[in-house]
Design goal:
The protein is built from seven helices and four strands. The chain is an alpha+beta fold. The structure holds flavin mononucleotide. The site of flavin mononucleotide has 8 residues, from strand 3.
Length: 195
């Protein structure tokens, strides 16, 4: 597992080369190995093949982002730069997998809901690890969280799906830079047995 953890990096730009459906099917299958609360498997995957469908999705998400930024007073020029870059990046990926929470699995209080969201995140990480193993670059993108209705409409998804993350996928255009050094300083506590 440790080499797999090392191998995975966020890769945001890809070659035009298509990702085979067989590969995408294996990535989807990897989710079935992820843990989920109460073994609820509360996820739904939408596998998106080819840049045109991703572009449609990217354009819809960018329009929602632009509307939100305008409402909070972001200047038009900055909004244009941000949304154009977002469409260029997300809309040019050769493939993607949208992970959604199947809200029909929700029952109970907010803590239960958190567990379901955590389970979808665990599934999303399984896709990233499997993608790295397949030699693919992948990036976890959060925009779907901010505009679920637009995402459902762009992809024709039912109302009961709550989009969580768009994993863009493709053969890497370039190797990622050196991994930023992260330390556990301030984020690690040991509780040791008394001697
Ligand atoms: C919940 C979550 C949301 C993220 N959203 C985005 C995003 O919207 N756009 C993006 O470029 N990267 C996104 N990332 C990727 C992080 O920026 C990335 O993991 C981080 O910079 C560390 O780099 P590494 O993945 O190569 O270790 C997201 C990661 C997580 C876990």
């Amino acid at each position: 597992v440790y080499p797999a953890l090392e191998l995975r990096r966020t890769v945001r730009w890809y070659q035009e080369r298509a990702v085979g459906e067989d590969v995408l099917a294996r990535l989807a299958q990897a989710v079935t190995l992820a843990p989920s609360a109460h073994h609820s498997t509360p996820w739904h995957l939408t596998v998106i093949c080819g840049a045109p469908a991703l572009r449609r999705l990217a354009v819809a998400m960018a329009a929602a982002w632009d509307r939100d930024m305008a409402a909070s007073g972001v200047p038009a020029e900055l909004r244009r730069r941000r949304t154009e870059r977002s469409v260029r990046r997300l809309g040019s990926a050769p493939a993607g997998i949208l992970t959604s929470l199947d809200t029909r699995r929700l029952a109970g209080d907010a803590r239960e809901e958190t567990m379901m969201v955590q389970s979808v995140a665990a599934a999303t990480y399984a896709i990233l690890l499997a993608a790295a193993y397949e030699g693919l670059g992948a990036a976890w993108n959060c925009p779907p969280l901010f505009c679920p209705a637009e995402v459902r409409s762009a992809l024709g998804l039912p109302e009961y799906l709550r989009p969580q993350a768009l994993v863009t996928l493709g053969y890497p255009r370039e190797a990622p830079g050196p991994r930023p050094v992260r330390s556990l300083e301030g984020a690690l506590t040991w509780i040791r047995a008394a001697p």
